[in-house]
Design a protein that fits this description.
Elements: H1 3-12, H2 18-21, H3 34-37, H4 39-55, E1 62-67, H5 73-81, H6 88-91, E2 92-97, H7 101-110, E3 116-119, E4 131-136, E5 145-150, E6 153-161, E7 167-173, H8 176-179, H9 184-188, E8 193-197, H10 199-215, E9 217-226, E10 236-239, E11 242-243, E12 254-256, E13 259-260, H11 261-270, E14 274-280, H12 281-287, H13 290-299, H14 303-317, H15 319-325, E15 326-332
Parallel strand pairs: 1-2, 1-4, 2-3, 4-9, 9-13
Antiparallel strand pairs: 5-6, 5-8, 6-7, 9-15, 10-11, 10-12, 14-15
Helix pairs in contact: 4-5, 10-11, 13-14, 14-15
This protein binds S-adenosyl-L-homocysteine.
């Protein structure tokens, strides 16, 4: 099978898949994410959404959609921080796209004060209403495939089950449909190496584009990745905050890949959407006033809280931490709407 199928089975097999069987977050889990690190993250995304809702003309009904909401912490912080924005809560119809039954239960508890609905696919959203969609560390979880470029030729990396019940990496023929996803500059370049591509991600972005074109609105993607398409292997396997081998206990490790933001932007541009960014997470959060907000929280905090506000802020925006590896990209149906936070184009 190709690597993408292997990744998909490891993460989302209905019985044994990584996300299906556990809550992977936090110190006791395998990894942590921006909303789990600090409430400041969700507060900034909340402010961004409220501003954009006003720029859309404060529609009296809109779909507030999150894809891959994890523990529901980001949505809870967004809703808490926007409760004083007149009309925003009354207008928001909350939809979470989540495949994990374990995480769905946690989201239900965290968001029990709100009228929340769950979907498996964007096609299940009600038609007509405008959409504000967010996804933090969702795109990196979508299965990627790896093409190996050598001697002006592409092969695809595959996984084979060997006689002794172990897996091995193999090479399989790269079909025309997968080669079509490789950008011309990569096809033409003299360099050799691995190119990662994701038909699942491409399809998902297309479905977001169609939704935004049809119903109007905007989408915000935050993830680790690169601003430009390039050769390079980024597939990573993590267990208990440590890197692991791709074939270690399949289904019990997180497997992700860096997001190619140029590819996301190009799909959206081809679908006639306005694209903002990518900018670094640090630049985005600073532009939205995260430091100012941290100071305000700090002023009324006890010693332990002060420490956690400072370390949380640093982790989110410092260049050596999440500040520059993580990127932010927004899509909007209307080129005249200027979402906040995108002044520093990469
Ligand atoms: N946004 C959260 C969680 C990121 S982890 C945070 O920042 O903390 C990835 C999330 O995406 C998990 O909730 C996982 O269950 C979900 N997910 C992964 N692939 C999915 C898919 N194909 N459909 C729906 N949800 C998916």
């Amino acid at each position: 099978m190709d690597i993408g199928r292997y990744m998909e089975l490891c993460l989302s097999h209905p019985e044994h898949g990584y996300y299906v069987t556990r809550d992977p977050f936090g110190v006791a889990g395998d990894f942590t994410t921006a909303p789990e690190i600090s409430q400041l993250f969700g507060e900034m995304v909340g402010a961004w959404l409220a501003d954009l809702w006003i720029k859309l003309g404060s529609p009296t009904e809109f779909l507030l959609v999150e894809c891959g909401p994890g523990r529901g912490t980001l949505m809870a912080d967004i809703l808490r921080s926007t409760k004083n924005v007149p009309g925003f809560h009354e207008a928001a119809r909350i939809y979470l796209m989540e495949m994990s039954p374990v995480l769905k239960d946690i989201q239900k508890q965290k968001l029990e004060a709100y009228d929340t609905r769950w979907i498996d696919d964007l096609s299940q959203l009600p038609p007509l209403l405008p959409v504000l969609l967010i996804a933090n560390e969702f795109l990196d979880a979508l299965p990627i495939r790896q093409l190996i470029k050598a001697n002006d030729n592409f092969q695809e990396r595959g996984v084979s089950l060997m006689g002794n019940d172990t897996f091995e990496v193999t090479e399989i023929t790269a079909e025309a449909t997968i080669l079509e996803t490789v950008p011309a500059k990569i096809l033409k370049a003299a360099d050799e190496g691995v190119f990662e591509t994701s038909p699942v991600l491409n399809q998902y972005i297309k479905s977001v584009d169609i939704l935004l074109k049809k119903q109007k609105g905007a989408a915000l993607f935050v993830d680790y990745g690169h601003a430009r398409s390039s050769l390079g292997e980024t597939l990573q396997v993590v267990k208990s905050h440590q890197f692991a081998d791709l074939f270690d206990t399949p289904g019990s490790c997180d497997i992700t890949a860096h997001v190619d933001f140029e590819n996301v932007a190009n799909i959206a541009l081809a679908d006639d959407l306005a694209v903002h960014g990518p900018v670094t997470q640090g630049a985005f959060l600073r532009a939205l006033g995260i430091e100012h907000r941290a100071e305000r929280l700090w002023a009324v905090a006890n010693e332990a809280q002060k420490e956690s506000i400072s370390t949380g802020l640093k982790r989110l925006i410092d260049t050596e931490q999440m500040g520059s590896l993580f990127k932010v990209l927004a899509l909007c149906h209307d080129p005249l709407i200027r979402p906040e936070g995108f002044d520093e184009d990469l």
